[in-house]
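Re: that backbone. C-alpha cells:
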C-alpha cells in the first residue's frame, strides 16, 4: 500500500513538473509560423478556387463574365465571341479580377494569439454570400476563402506538438 501511494505521489510530482514546464512555453514563438501558413493557405484558395473543405466555388454569373469581357466589345458583328474574349474567359478566376482581395489578406500576432483576414469592406459578402450592389438587388453566392482546412489543422497540430515536446 505504501509503495502504490509513493508511486501516485511521484506521478503527481511528475505531472506538476510537466505542467509548470508547459506553462512557461512561449506561444508567440509558434504563432508567427502558424499565422504565415494561414495567410498562404487562404491565398492559395483564391488560386485553386475552392473553400477550406476543397469544394469548388460557385462559378461566375453570365452577367459578371460579360462585364469582365467588356460587354459588346467582346463580340463580332455576327454575335460570336472574339478570340481574345475567349482567351480572357478561359483565364478568368473567381474573386481575382484585380487580385485586391487576395492580396489584402494579412496576419497579426499578439501574444500567443493568431489572427488573419482582410480589411476590405466587400470581403464579408464574398466569403459568406448575401445581397449586394445598388439596392442590394444582387445575391452573391458564398465563396468561402477564410477558414481552416484539414491540412491547416494538421500543420497547426504539428507545430504545437513539436513546440510542446521541445522540438522547435
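Recovered sequence:
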Amino acid at each position: 500500500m505504501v509503495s502504490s501511494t509513493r508511486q501516485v505521489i511521484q506521478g503527481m510530482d511528475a505531472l506538476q513538473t510537466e505542467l509548470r514546464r508547459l506553462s512557461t512555453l512561449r506561444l508567440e514563438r509558434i504563432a508567427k509560423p502558424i499565422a504565415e501558413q494561414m495567410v498562404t493557405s487562404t491565398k492559395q484558395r483564391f488560386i485553386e478556387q475552392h473553400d477550406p473543405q476543397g469544394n469548388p466555388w460557385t462559378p461566375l454569373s453570365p452577367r459578371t463574365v460579360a462585364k469582365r469581357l467588356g460587354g459588346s466589345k467582346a463580340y463580332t458583328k455576327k454575335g460570336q465571341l472574339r478570340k481574345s474574349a475567349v482567351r480572357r474567359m478561359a483565364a478568368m478566376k473567381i474573386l481575382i479580377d484585380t487580385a485586391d482581395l487576395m492580396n489584402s489578406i494579412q496576419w497579426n500576432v499578439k501574444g500567443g494569439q493568431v489572427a488573419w483576414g482582410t480589411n476590405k469592406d466587400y470581403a464579408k459578402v464574398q466569403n459568406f454570400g448575401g445581397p449586394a450592389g445598388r439596392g442590394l438587388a444582387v445575391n452573391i453566392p458564398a465563396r468561402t476563402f477564410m477558414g481552416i482546412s484539414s491540412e491547416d489543422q494538421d500543420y497547426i497540430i504539428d507545430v504545437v506538438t513539436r513546440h510542446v515536446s521541445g522540438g522547435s
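Strands lie at 106-110, 113-117, 130-132, 138-140. Residues 106 and 116 are 6 Å apart (CA to CA).
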